[in-house]
Amino acid sequence: MAPRGSQPGGAAALLTELRSAIEPAAARMAAIRTPLTQASELVGLAGRLWQAGREGDAEGFLRLDTQFHALVLEISGNEMFAKLHHLVDEVLSGRTHYGLMPRYPAPEALQLHVDVATAIQSGNADKAASAMLAIMQRTMAEMSSIWDQSIAAPGGEMLHLDSGAILGFS
């Protein structure tokens, strides 16, 4: 059996699994370690992210979403987690630029970002981790149906949708 990362969509799946392991832990640590000013900045980002999502502003949403996840990684206080923001940026950018993100994100997904931010602000480590895990689980569920699809190219040729190749990982 071929390694999962070499299968269609495998690299994107692996990166999302990595995010699922790291980001809830980062949110938990952020709730414990973050000064109020940075936590308030995160809450403000979540509010602007909500607005961009509700207005269908895909580019604004992407910019704010990457800032949100990068800030969670940064305020976790773990320098290794903070360095992973480039990976998260690439995954989020790839999803947006290749039409894998809905124009209007689900209200539940928007609320989960607000839940992460307010849990971090209030110092509720368990709630911060569980809300971030819910974001990751939602992402995995949404993307798993896409990772293994084949699509018809112009002219009828069948192509595999490989988000790993889209992101430059295959």
UniProtKB/TrEMBL annotation:
Signal peptide: none annotated. InterPro entries: GntR_C, TF_FadR/GntR_C. The keyword Flavoprotein does not apply. It comes from the Bacteria. Gene3D superfamilies: GntR ligand-binding domain-like. Residues 14-138 form the GntR C-terminal domain. This is GntR C-terminal domain-containing protein.
